[in-house]
Amino acid sequence: NILDIGCGEGTLGMLLRQMSANYHTHGCDISETSIDLARQYYDKTTLFNIDVEEPRDVFGNKKFDIVVCIEVIEHLLDPQAALEKCKYLIKQDGFIITSFPNIAWWKYRLKLLKGHFPEESRFYHHAEHLHDFTMHSFTKILDQAGLKIIEIGGEFIPPKLVKNLLPGKLANRVFKRYPNLFGYQIVLKTKKL
Q1: pLDDT at 78
Q2: CA–CA separation, 187 and 193 (whole Å)
Q3: In a designed cystine with 27, which of 37, 42, 50, 178 is the match (CB 3.0 to 4.6 A)?
Q4: Pair 145, 98: CB distance under 8 Å
Q5: What residues form DSSP beta bridges with 149?
């Protein structure tokens, strides 16, 4: 049982369906248009605004093995409350997979040192994200929401010089060890404390 919060047009649902017919997928989004587009890729779709609605009111007591919340948290009014709602939706041994663009990525740090805000950290407009996160600040709200990181992944983009100096497997270990520096986009697998 997988719940995709902020499913958009259904890309994750489409990919999961291609991977296996054994997944039961449920997509939800704030946008009716997105739900209409995503419906074909999920077993079930629901209109859901995690910022203002309570999961119990929308899903009852239904629990999921995995709740996916990718590219969502930085857009919400209260990220900690949203993570607590995600926690309510997972089974006791379930997982939440979430992501965020890392404002502390090395290239953004250089821009800030020069006095420029890294505008390319936004897809559309600088006001599209209500929150900026680093690995440290995101870990803090996870702790406050009662969640623990069990796996770190994402898109790690180091400076070319560093990438060229380290062999592949060692490079990957170094980049994952320092996600706040090398992580352009950080993906976290979490569980209840």
Answers
A1: 95
A2: 18
A3: 42
A4: no
A5: 190
Helix, coil or strand: residue 44:
strand
The tokens of 49 are what? 């605004």
pLDDT class of 49 with cuts at 50, 70, 90 = very high
Query: Tokens 């587009």 correspond to what residue?
Result: 37
Question: Average pLDDT over the chain, rounded to whole?
Answer: 91
At residue 45, what are phi and psi to the nearest 5 degrees?
A: -130, 150
Helix residue ranges per DSSP H, 5-52:
11-19, 32-38
CA of residue 93 relative to chain centroid, distance: 19
Number of Cβ atoms within 10 Å of the Cβ of 4: 28
Q: Partners of 133 in the beta sheet?
A: 102
Token representation of residue 176: 């994952």
Tokens of 63: 């629990």
Using the structure block, give the residue that is written with the tokens 């047009």.
9
Cβ(134)–Cβ(186) under 8 Å?
A: no
Contact 4, 11 (CB under 8 A): no
Which residue in 97, 102, 96, 86 sits closest to 51, CA to CA? 86
- pLDDT score at 21: 85
Longest dimension (CA), the chain: 53
Contact indicator for 95, 66 with CB cutoff of 8 Å: yes
Residue 133 is given by DSSP the state: B
pLDDT tens per residue across span 167-191: 778 888 888 899 999 999 999 999 9
